Amino acid sequence: MSDFCLQILGSGSAKPTKNRNQTAQYLSLHNKSFLIDCGEATQVQMVQYSISTSRLNHIFISHLHGDHCFGLIGLISSLGLYGRTANLYIHAHPMLEQLLRPALNYFCRDLSYSVFFEPYSHSSTEVIYEDRGLKVSVFPLKHSISSSGFLFCEKEKERHIISEKVKFFNVPVKQIPLIKQGADFVTDEGVTIPNSQLTTDPSPSLSYAYCSDTMYSEKILPFIEGVDLLFHEATFLHSQLAKAEATMHTTALQAAMIAEKAHVKQLMIGHFSARYDDLSPLLKEAQTIFPNTILAKDGLTVKL
Asked: Which sequence spans correspond to the domains of the chain?
């Protein structure tokens, strides 16, 4: 079973509602956790949904509109109150450190841990985080200010050992890591046992793309092609297309068009305007183009 798990902490846009907090998502995989955007009161949502921050070391901020980053100072302060000691890394527009550092110096001067800002370019595509099992890339979106999408891709996984074959050929334990990586096994007699006899194919690597905020743009298609799950903002119904274009946002119909053109496996829409109490019309609109669409409701957990 995959440990690739996404939790929605906020699915609203600039104006919070009773049922929708401002944008924030919590991604967990490989015993690590990542926060994507941090709208106001994100830390409250974490408490509400019993989310542990012990494995949270990296935060990714898509752009510097308040509904995507106003929750940072409160979260950083509270992590200090919890006795955190591990460093925290914030990946964001270079301007964020200039804006946030004075507040940290004043309100969080006695933090028990260090906060580091990792700036990235909003005008290009680059890898901004990488570990043994995951790679995170950034790509430009089209919004009223510099905004970026994120692509979370698992690296190719190791092959699965066939235990009875390994035992039959007396494969030493020290050889197992190499065999998992695709190596053949050579016996003491010099006989080569092909890897295909010792292993089966690895589990498929999973991918998640996050696109908020942006207006409709097919330029993002190469970056999100074929992902297992795409989150794409759908602030308005298509009947409000003029409003969407004026504010450089997307309609539910347009988000579905992007999902269809990118051949993604599943679409999740969110960043809903506060004008919508009932979200079912947005879901139905998207499903007319891309049936495998779900709503990013606060509290929702999706396991890939």
From this structure: 5-157+203-297, 160-200
User: Which amino acid, 216?
Assistant: Y
Query: Which candidate in 3, 37, 67, 201 is catalytic?
Result: 67
Q: Which residues contact 26 (CB under 8 A, 6 or more apart)?
A: 6, 7, 9, 33, 34, 35, 36, 46, 51, 56
Q: Which CATH superfamily is domain 5-157+203-297 in?
A: Ribonuclease Z/Hydroxyacylglutathione hydrolase-like (3.60.15.10)
Nearest to 102 by CA among 143, 144, 67, 73: 73
Active site residue 37: no
Instruction: Please enumerate in sequence order all residues whose Cβ is within 8 A of that of 258, keeping only pairs 6 or more positions apart, or say none.
Output: 211, 216, 218, 220, 221, 224, 230, 232, 250
Which pTM was predicted? Answer: 0.92
Asked if residues 59 and 90 have their Cβ atoms less than 8 Å apart, the reply is: yes
**Ordered mean pLDDT values, 10 residues apiece, the chain (304 residues):** 84 92 96 96 96 95 98 97 96 97 95 97 93 96 97 92 91 92 91 92 93 97 98 98 98 98 98 97 98 98 94
Q: Which residues pair with 136 in a beta bridge?
A: 129, 152
Q: State pLDDT tens for residues 183-199.
A: 999 998 999 999 999 99
